[in-house]
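This section describes the prediction task in plain terms. A model, or a person checking by hand, is given the sequence of a single protein chain and must write out its three-dimensional structure as a string of tokens. No templates, partner chains or ligands are provided. The sample shown here is typical of the held-out split.
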Amino acid sequence: MDKEDTSAKIKSLLIYNFTRNFEWPTKMRQGNFVICTIGMTPGLKIELDKLAISKMVENQKIEIKSVEKISEAGKCNILYLNDENSDLLASALKSYKNKGTLLITEKAGLGKAGSLINFVVLDSKQKFELNINSVTKSGLKVSDKLKELAITVYK
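The expected answer:
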């Protein structure tokens, strides 16, 4: 297994664990649990597709939706922007403010720029930043357990 595959597997497991450590508003707990992605490595796409087949979020089926623009995304429980699409962060924050969407990014500095979760690599290990202020603005509630595991950042 190469480095990208390992990274993709770890990220998909973290994303699934996030589904269990955030509380979504009632309106977001109906229909499918939608993970929208804008830009994604093939390895992560494969891992998320496996997740969608084998797991659920409470009573919701997981649906992976790949889009090219935020305007195409619609309802998303999670919106994932890869590093090449990080310039869409401000627009995503505006579009999904207080709508119960977990915004995940993967580029240095985006945690402090307002992303709710930002994947970072420290000492060759996959970690994640959690922006508490952004979580509050999103309409989500985060578990204390996840707060303990995260690198906490503030905007």
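For orientation: Strands lie at 22-23, 33-38, 56-57, 60-67, 78-81, 102-105, 117-122, 125-131, 141-142, 151-153.
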